[in-house]
Amino acid sequence: MNAWRQTLSRLMRAGSRLLLVAILGAASLVAAAAPALPADIIADLSSLQKRLEQGEYQDVSRVALSQAERLEEGNASDRWASALYLQLAAGAEARLEHHENAADLLYRARQTPGLESQQYDRWLYEEASSRLSAGQIELATQRLAEWLETHPEQEREIWLMVQLLVRQERWDDAASWVDRALDETATLDSQQSALAVTVYQRAGNIDKALVVLEPGLDSDAPSVEWRRAAAMAQQLEQFALAAAIWDAGWRIGALEGAEDLLTLVQLHLRVGTPARAAEYLEQALSQGLVKQTPAHQRQLAQAWQAAKDQARALEAWQTVAERSGMAEDWLRLGQLAHGWGKTDATRHAWEQAAALGAEQARRWLARLE
Question: Which residues form a coiled coil (predicted)?
Answer without folding.
Answer: none
